[in-house]
Automatic annotation (TrEMBL):
This is Universal stress protein. SUPFAM superfamilies: Adenine nucleotide alpha hydrolases-like. The lineage of its organism: Bacteria, Bacillati, Actinomycetota, Actinomycetes, Kineosporiales. Belongs to the universal stress protein A family. Residues 7-142, 162-294 form the UspA domain. Gene3D superfamilies: HUPs. It comes from Quadrisphaera setariae. It comes from the Bacteria.
Length: 303
Protein backbone atom coordinates (compact mmCIF):
# COMPACT_ATOMS: atom_id res chain seq x y z
CA UNK A 1 0.00 0.00 0.00
CA UNK A 2 1.42 3.38 -0.90
CA UNK A 3 1.59 6.23 1.58
CA UNK A 4 -1.00 8.98 1.87
CA UNK A 5 0.93 11.45 -0.30
CA UNK A 6 0.43 10.45 -3.91
CA UNK A 7 -2.21 10.38 -6.57
CA UNK A 8 -5.88 10.34 -5.69
CA UNK A 9 -8.28 9.02 -8.35
CA UNK A 10 -11.92 10.06 -8.15
CA UNK A 11 -14.70 8.62 -10.26
CA UNK A 12 -16.99 11.35 -11.57
CA UNK A 13 -20.60 11.24 -12.67
CA UNK A 14 -22.67 14.33 -13.36
CA UNK A 15 -24.83 13.72 -10.29
CA UNK A 16 -25.07 14.95 -6.71
CA UNK A 17 -23.06 11.93 -5.58
CA UNK A 18 -20.37 12.59 -8.21
CA UNK A 19 -20.00 16.20 -7.14
CA UNK A 20 -19.74 15.18 -3.49
CA UNK A 21 -16.98 12.71 -4.41
CA UNK A 22 -14.94 15.38 -6.21
CA UNK A 23 -15.34 17.84 -3.33
CA UNK A 24 -14.21 15.25 -0.78
CA UNK A 25 -11.33 14.07 -2.99
CA UNK A 26 -10.11 17.67 -3.40
CA UNK A 27 -10.18 18.02 0.38
CA UNK A 28 -7.98 14.94 0.74
CA UNK A 29 -5.44 16.19 -1.80
CA UNK A 30 -5.39 19.61 -0.17
CA UNK A 31 -4.72 17.98 3.20
CA UNK A 32 -2.29 15.25 2.10
CA UNK A 33 -0.60 16.63 -1.00
CA UNK A 34 -0.14 14.86 -4.33
CA UNK A 35 -2.39 15.10 -7.38
CA UNK A 36 -6.09 14.71 -8.04
CA UNK A 37 -7.15 12.72 -11.11
CA UNK A 38 -10.74 13.10 -12.29
CA UNK A 39 -11.92 10.03 -14.19
CA UNK A 40 -15.08 9.61 -16.21
CA UNK A 41 -15.75 6.04 -17.36
CA UNK A 42 -17.73 5.54 -20.55
CA UNK A 43 -19.21 2.19 -21.66
CA UNK A 44 -16.94 0.25 -23.98
CA UNK A 45 -19.60 -0.16 -26.65
CA UNK A 46 -17.14 -1.26 -29.33
CA UNK A 47 -15.86 -4.35 -27.51
CA UNK A 48 -17.68 -7.39 -28.83
CA UNK A 49 -20.37 -5.31 -30.54
CA UNK A 50 -22.08 -6.91 -33.54
CA UNK A 51 -22.83 -3.53 -35.11
CA UNK A 52 -20.05 -0.88 -35.02
CA UNK A 53 -21.06 2.13 -32.90
CA UNK A 54 -22.43 5.11 -34.81
CA UNK A 55 -19.73 7.75 -35.39
CA UNK A 56 -22.10 10.64 -34.69
CA UNK A 57 -23.21 9.14 -31.41
CA UNK A 58 -19.61 8.50 -30.39
CA UNK A 59 -18.65 12.11 -31.12
CA UNK A 60 -21.60 13.37 -29.08
CA UNK A 61 -20.73 11.06 -26.21
CA UNK A 62 -17.12 12.22 -26.18
CA UNK A 63 -18.20 15.86 -26.31
CA UNK A 64 -20.56 15.27 -23.39
CA UNK A 65 -17.79 13.53 -21.45
CA UNK A 66 -15.49 16.52 -21.94
CA UNK A 67 -18.25 18.85 -20.71
CA UNK A 68 -18.91 16.69 -17.64
CA UNK A 69 -15.22 16.62 -16.78
CA UNK A 70 -15.11 20.41 -17.13
CA UNK A 71 -17.94 20.52 -14.55
CA UNK A 72 -15.85 18.33 -12.25
CA UNK A 73 -12.72 20.45 -12.72
CA UNK A 74 -14.70 23.56 -11.81
CA UNK A 75 -15.34 22.02 -8.37
CA UNK A 76 -11.62 21.69 -7.64
CA UNK A 77 -10.25 24.64 -5.62
CA UNK A 78 -7.36 26.68 -6.97
CA UNK A 79 -4.03 25.31 -5.85
CA UNK A 80 -5.06 21.64 -6.00
CA UNK A 81 -3.18 20.06 -8.94
CA UNK A 82 -5.49 17.95 -11.07
CA UNK A 83 -5.88 16.22 -14.40
CA UNK A 84 -8.86 14.75 -16.25
CA UNK A 85 -9.25 11.37 -17.94
CA UNK A 86 -11.88 9.62 -20.03
CA UNK A 87 -11.69 5.83 -19.85
CA UNK A 88 -13.57 3.16 -21.79
CA UNK A 89 -14.41 0.04 -19.83
CA UNK A 90 -17.12 -2.56 -19.40
CA UNK A 91 -17.90 -1.19 -15.94
CA UNK A 92 -17.14 1.94 -13.95
CA UNK A 93 -15.28 -0.08 -11.30
CA UNK A 94 -13.10 -1.75 -13.92
CA UNK A 95 -12.22 1.56 -15.56
CA UNK A 96 -11.42 3.27 -12.29
CA UNK A 97 -9.17 0.43 -11.14
CA UNK A 98 -7.33 0.43 -14.47
CA UNK A 99 -6.56 4.14 -14.17
CA UNK A 100 -5.60 3.80 -10.50
CA UNK A 101 -3.14 1.02 -11.30
CA UNK A 102 -1.63 2.87 -14.26
CA UNK A 103 -1.08 5.96 -12.11
CA UNK A 104 0.06 4.04 -9.02
CA UNK A 105 -2.66 5.82 -7.06
CA UNK A 106 -2.74 5.87 -3.27
CA UNK A 107 -6.55 5.75 -3.10
CA UNK A 108 -9.78 5.67 -5.09
CA UNK A 109 -12.72 7.98 -4.26
CA UNK A 110 -16.32 7.32 -5.31
CA UNK A 111 -19.66 8.87 -4.44
CA UNK A 112 -22.53 6.93 -2.96
CA UNK A 113 -26.21 6.77 -3.65
CA UNK A 114 -28.35 9.06 -1.50
CA UNK A 115 -30.69 6.50 0.10
CA UNK A 116 -31.47 8.80 3.00
CA UNK A 117 -34.39 6.81 4.33
CA UNK A 118 -32.20 3.73 4.69
CA UNK A 119 -29.10 5.41 6.13
CA UNK A 120 -26.45 7.99 5.40
CA UNK A 121 -24.65 6.09 2.62
CA UNK A 122 -26.43 4.09 -0.04
CA UNK A 123 -23.75 2.13 -1.87
CA UNK A 124 -24.16 2.10 -5.66
CA UNK A 125 -23.02 -0.51 -8.15
CA UNK A 126 -19.54 0.89 -8.81
CA UNK A 127 -18.81 1.43 -5.12
CA UNK A 128 -20.07 -2.04 -4.25
CA UNK A 129 -17.84 -3.67 -6.89
CA UNK A 130 -14.80 -1.71 -5.69
CA UNK A 131 -15.52 -2.60 -2.05
CA UNK A 132 -15.35 -6.28 -2.99
CA UNK A 133 -12.42 -6.28 -5.39
CA UNK A 134 -10.07 -3.29 -5.06
CA UNK A 135 -6.47 -3.70 -3.95
CA UNK A 136 -6.02 -0.14 -2.64
CA UNK A 137 -7.99 1.98 -0.16
CA UNK A 138 -11.43 3.03 -1.41
CA UNK A 139 -13.07 6.19 -0.07
CA UNK A 140 -16.89 6.17 -0.21
CA UNK A 141 -18.42 9.64 0.06
CA UNK A 142 -22.02 10.29 1.10
CA UNK A 143 -23.81 13.38 -0.20
CA UNK A 144 -24.26 14.42 3.44
CA UNK A 145 -20.47 14.84 3.76
CA UNK A 146 -20.60 18.21 1.94
CA UNK A 147 -24.11 19.43 2.73
CA UNK A 148 -24.06 22.52 4.91
CA UNK A 149 -20.24 22.60 4.92
CA UNK A 150 -19.37 26.25 4.36
CA UNK A 151 -15.87 25.84 5.73
CA UNK A 152 -14.29 23.92 2.89
CA UNK A 153 -10.82 24.00 1.37
CA UNK A 154 -11.19 27.67 0.44
CA UNK A 155 -12.98 28.62 3.66
CA UNK A 156 -9.97 28.86 5.94
CA UNK A 157 -10.72 25.71 7.92
CA UNK A 158 -8.64 22.52 7.88
CA UNK A 159 -9.08 20.39 4.78
CA UNK A 160 -8.98 17.27 6.96
CA UNK A 161 -10.34 18.10 10.40
CA UNK A 162 -10.04 14.70 12.10
CA UNK A 163 -9.29 11.06 11.34
CA UNK A 164 -11.49 8.57 13.17
CA UNK A 165 -10.45 4.92 13.02
CA UNK A 166 -12.88 2.14 13.89
CA UNK A 167 -10.89 -0.59 15.61
CA UNK A 168 -12.26 -4.04 16.37
CA UNK A 169 -11.68 -6.36 19.29
CA UNK A 170 -9.78 -8.95 17.27
CA UNK A 171 -6.02 -8.81 16.57
CA UNK A 172 -4.65 -7.93 13.13
CA UNK A 173 -5.56 -4.24 12.88
CA UNK A 174 -1.97 -3.12 12.24
CA UNK A 175 -2.51 -2.17 8.57
CA UNK A 176 -5.73 -0.33 9.43
CA UNK A 177 -4.09 1.60 12.24
CA UNK A 178 -1.02 2.43 10.17
CA UNK A 179 -3.19 3.85 7.38
CA UNK A 180 -5.11 6.03 9.85
CA UNK A 181 -1.90 7.19 11.50
CA UNK A 182 -0.36 8.00 8.12
CA UNK A 183 -3.38 10.12 7.16
CA UNK A 184 -3.28 11.93 10.50
CA UNK A 185 0.47 12.48 10.33
CA UNK A 186 0.45 13.75 6.73
CA UNK A 187 -2.43 16.16 7.31
CA UNK A 188 -1.70 17.21 10.88
CA UNK A 189 -5.26 16.19 11.81
CA UNK A 190 -5.99 14.72 15.26
CA UNK A 191 -6.71 11.02 15.53
CA UNK A 192 -9.76 9.57 17.26
CA UNK A 193 -9.92 5.88 18.10
CA UNK A 194 -13.38 4.32 18.30
CA UNK A 195 -14.20 0.75 19.28
CA UNK A 196 -17.79 -0.22 18.48
CA UNK A 197 -19.34 -2.76 20.79
CA UNK A 198 -22.74 -4.10 19.70
CA UNK A 199 -24.52 -5.44 22.76
CA UNK A 200 -26.87 -7.89 21.10
CA UNK A 201 -25.40 -10.99 22.73
CA UNK A 202 -27.69 -13.18 24.88
CA UNK A 203 -27.22 -12.81 28.61
CA UNK A 204 -25.76 -10.05 30.76
CA UNK A 205 -22.50 -11.92 31.45
CA UNK A 206 -21.76 -12.20 27.73
CA UNK A 207 -22.26 -8.45 27.34
CA UNK A 208 -20.01 -7.67 30.27
CA UNK A 209 -17.28 -10.00 28.97
CA UNK A 210 -17.50 -8.47 25.49
CA UNK A 211 -17.24 -4.95 26.89
CA UNK A 212 -14.23 -5.93 29.02
CA UNK A 213 -12.53 -7.44 25.96
CA UNK A 214 -13.14 -4.27 23.94
CA UNK A 215 -11.82 -2.10 26.78
CA UNK A 216 -8.60 -4.11 27.02
CA UNK A 217 -8.08 -4.11 23.26
CA UNK A 218 -8.71 -0.38 22.93
CA UNK A 219 -6.14 0.38 25.61
CA UNK A 220 -3.55 -1.63 23.67
CA UNK A 221 -4.36 0.07 20.37
CA UNK A 222 -4.24 3.49 22.03
CA UNK A 223 -0.79 2.77 23.47
CA UNK A 224 0.42 1.68 20.02
CA UNK A 225 -0.97 4.83 18.40
CA UNK A 226 0.58 7.10 21.01
CA UNK A 227 3.94 5.41 20.60
CA UNK A 228 3.79 5.88 16.83
CA UNK A 229 2.69 9.52 16.59
CA UNK A 230 2.83 10.92 20.10
CA UNK A 231 0.04 11.41 22.59
CA UNK A 232 -0.66 14.95 21.39
CA UNK A 233 -2.04 13.70 18.06
CA UNK A 234 -4.37 11.14 19.62
CA UNK A 235 -7.33 13.33 20.50
CA UNK A 236 -9.63 10.73 21.98
CA UNK A 237 -10.27 7.03 22.46
CA UNK A 238 -13.85 5.92 22.85
CA UNK A 239 -15.63 2.66 23.53
CA UNK A 240 -19.08 3.12 22.02
CA UNK A 241 -21.86 0.66 22.87
CA UNK A 242 -25.26 0.25 21.28
CA UNK A 243 -28.01 -2.19 20.37
CA UNK A 244 -26.60 -2.28 16.84
CA UNK A 245 -23.98 -0.44 14.79
CA UNK A 246 -26.30 2.44 13.86
CA UNK A 247 -27.28 2.89 17.51
CA UNK A 248 -23.65 2.88 18.63
CA UNK A 249 -22.52 5.34 15.96
CA UNK A 250 -25.51 7.61 16.61
CA UNK A 251 -23.90 8.97 19.75
CA UNK A 252 -20.72 10.12 18.02
CA UNK A 253 -20.23 13.68 16.85
CA UNK A 254 -18.76 14.39 13.41
CA UNK A 255 -16.81 17.39 12.08
CA UNK A 256 -16.93 18.91 8.58
CA UNK A 257 -13.94 17.51 6.73
CA UNK A 258 -13.64 14.40 8.91
CA UNK A 259 -13.02 10.88 7.59
CA UNK A 260 -13.48 7.49 9.26
CA UNK A 261 -11.13 4.60 8.48
CA UNK A 262 -12.35 0.98 8.57
CA UNK A 263 -10.75 -2.32 7.67
CA UNK A 264 -11.61 -4.98 5.15
CA UNK A 265 -13.10 -8.30 6.22
CA UNK A 266 -10.82 -11.22 7.07
CA UNK A 267 -12.68 -13.13 4.36
CA UNK A 268 -10.94 -10.97 1.74
CA UNK A 269 -8.45 -12.54 -0.65
CA UNK A 270 -4.86 -11.39 0.00
CA UNK A 271 -4.38 -7.68 -0.78
CA UNK A 272 -8.05 -7.24 -1.76
CA UNK A 273 -11.04 -5.55 -0.21
CA UNK A 274 -14.07 -7.43 0.99
CA UNK A 275 -16.54 -5.49 3.09
CA UNK A 276 -17.61 -7.39 6.19
CA UNK A 277 -21.02 -7.11 7.85
CA UNK A 278 -19.95 -4.69 10.60
CA UNK A 279 -18.09 -2.38 8.20
CA UNK A 280 -21.05 -2.43 5.80
CA UNK A 281 -23.43 -1.39 8.57
CA UNK A 282 -21.04 1.34 9.71
CA UNK A 283 -20.74 2.57 6.12
CA UNK A 284 -24.49 3.13 6.03
CA UNK A 285 -24.62 4.82 9.44
CA UNK A 286 -22.06 7.64 9.24
CA UNK A 287 -22.40 11.04 7.51
CA UNK A 288 -18.69 11.43 6.56
CA UNK A 289 -16.41 9.81 3.96
CA UNK A 290 -15.39 6.25 4.84
CA UNK A 291 -11.91 4.98 3.92
CA UNK A 292 -11.94 1.19 3.52
CA UNK A 293 -8.46 -0.33 3.77
CA UNK A 294 -7.29 -3.76 2.53
CA UNK A 295 -6.25 -5.88 5.49
CA UNK A 296 -2.90 -6.95 4.00
CA UNK A 297 -0.24 -5.22 1.96
CA UNK A 298 1.00 -6.39 -1.46
CA UNK A 299 4.65 -7.30 -1.81
CA UNK A 300 6.80 -4.26 -2.55
CA UNK A 301 4.30 -1.77 -1.12
CA UNK A 302 2.30 -1.20 -4.31
CA UNK A 303 -1.35 -0.28 -3.88
Amino acid sequence: MSGPVGRTVVGYTSTEAGRAAVTAAARLVSALGGELHLVLVLPDAGRGAVVPPDAGYEALLRSSADAWLAEAAALVPAGVPHASHVRRAESAAEGLLEVAHELGAARLVVGSGAERGLGRIGVGTAASELLHSADLPVVVVPVTAVEGDDDGVDGGGPALSRVTVAVGTRPGADVLLEEALALARASGAPLRLVSLQVLDLPGRLDRVAAADTADAHLRGVLEEARAAVGAAQVQDALLVRGRDVADAVGGLGWLPGEVVVVGSSRLAAPHRLFLGATAARLLRAVPVPVVVVPRTRPQGGRP
